[in-house]
Amino acid sequence: MKEPAQGGGFWSALRRGGVPSAIASVMGAPTAQQMAFIRSLTREQRRSEVLRTPLERLETVVFDLETTGFSAQHGDEILSFGAIRVVGDMIMEKEQFYTLVNPRTEIPEHITELTGITREMTDEAPPLMNGLHDFMSFVGGRVLVAHASAHDKAFLNAALWKTSKVQLTHRVLDTMMLAKWLEPQQHQTYSLDELLAFQSIPIEGRHHALEDAKMTAKLWVAYVQEMLKRDVTNLADVYAHLSHA
Question: Where does the record place the Exonuclease domain (predicted)?
């Protein structure tokens, strides 16, 4: 669709970046402030000091995404963000984050059946930039944890590039990879359901981003406790063991 043929006013202001943030938010356009914040947050996330932080004090955010499909490279979009903060092996129950976002695309029927998320629900949700900005604000500079993290990283990277032209630079730990190291030959698929059952963690509210994040956080805590028993004292030790797993 072409812009109205006007030399000034709204469309001229839009091109110059002068649209008020409230209007830009309604339109789904990223504001300069949101982009600047996300870009600043992605800088220097690989500082070496965090590698020496004792696991008992390591601050992490365990997160999960629900999406319209399984390929960020082929147009699938994020539907929701869920996250919870963990310090060492302590889950900060009151420090949770959840939001739906508007994918601006149809939601396949099988995804609605899986997640319970409908088009009507996302029509009332904030645009991707707002949800991403709020999620990254919640994460801050903490280490991220997810299960089968390649899926979530791909969607985060696609969203970050689409909105802010940056890539995810946070360290991301994968509970699937930790399970393969800590519980070798104990599982067939290393799926989240299988690992939760093995750890006797109740499975409730699957395929809801926040509920999956909370269950994954319990799994992460179990692995932190197991690593401490094995004298794995910091993140550098974790990476060293994972590289040989």
Answer: 59-229
